[in-house]
Amino acid sequence: MITLDEVTSKDGTTITYDRLGDGPGLVVLHGVMQTGHSNIELAQALASDFTCYVPDRRGRGRSGPYGPDYGLQREVEDLDALLEATGAQHVVGVSSGAIVTLRTALARPALRKVVAFEPPLDLGGSYPAGWLDRFDGELAAGRIPAALVTGMLATRLGPPVFHVMPRALLELLTAMMLKKQEKAAGAGEPTYRELAPTLHYDGQVVAETAADLDVYRSVQAEVLLLGGTKSPAHLRSVLTALEGVLPRARRVDMAGLDHSATSNAAMRGKPERVAEEIRRFLTAP
Questions:
Q1: Could you tell me how far CA 97 lies from the centroid of its own chain?
Q2: How far apart, in whole angstroms, are the C-alpha atoms of residue 262 and residue 282?
Q3: How far apart are CA 34 and CA 11, in angstroms?
Q4: How far apart are CA 199 and CA 35, in angstroms?
Q5: pTM score > 0.85 for this model?
Q6: CATH number of residue 101's parent domain
Q7: Using CA atoms, how far apart are residues 54 and 92, in angstroms rounded to an integer?
Q8: Residue 100: its pLDDT value, please?
């Protein structure tokens, strides 16, 4: 059974979350272009062993707005408030949610084990600057496919062939994808059209991580660096870099999976497969 609850963050913002399962507390923190529901099947696959708390990050889903002072610190405060309220000592962070998770581990030594799934850290200027202005302008003009193409090219989440295709063709294909996804989305499943504005804020979080790598040497929690062999090379490079600085880390590359692996099955995820690796890590003595 899934129950709905909420917690109040340091600045007064309400963070809403689903609770399911039984056992030690585990927060599942979603990533880019997602809400908590996007990873609900992953939580369900873990619920036989853990009490899973699945929040909507601020500005998304049922949680409160970003607020005027939004940034990575606000996200850390949100996760810290949820951990404090629930007593959970484990976190699975997905994509940009993994950035928030790692930064929270620095501020909260009580965290015992952390799973970081492909955090898109900006290592050495690996993400281009200046794309947010174009993205915001296209979004304001109602050109959602164009805005998503701008974001996708900047964050390099699409396959390499996207970078050599004509932009007009990319926008056409994206518009077709949006319509297809809207028809296929199940109950409670957010659509990419609805989530498009959130890409600005995840881009802001990533931008704050530039020249940030050495700070993670102080993380005391055990960390599982999790990724897929079919994910973009720059995301795999981040895992390699973190492997070199985190004092208590191990890494697993899941064969044949990509950046969508944690998502619900309808969104091309493999939640059961990912849950196996997470369970193995969290239950190990």
A1: 4
A2: 16
A3: 23
A4: 12
A5: yes
A6: 3.40.50.1820
A7: 10
A8: 98
